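FW: tagging you since you asked about this chain on Friday. Here's the raw sequence from the shared folder, copied in full. Didn't touch anything.
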Amino acid sequence: MQTGMLRSYAAECIGTFTLVFFGCGTRAMVGDTQNFAGILVVHMAFAFTIAAMIKEVA
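HL: got it, structure written out here
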């Protein structure tokens, strides 16, 4: 197995873990997604997590 493939697998694992940890963690902390603010907070957590992961790679 090539080193490049291992780096790709590690990056995918770290990215997925971070997305689930922050995104789903925010959803669990907010709890109430019946109002617009709760939904917006959850969506922003997912968006900022993805933006942070893109910024790290570039």
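FW: The two ends are 25 Å apart (CA to CA).
HL: agreed, and The chain has a mean pLDDT of 86.
FW: great, closing this out.
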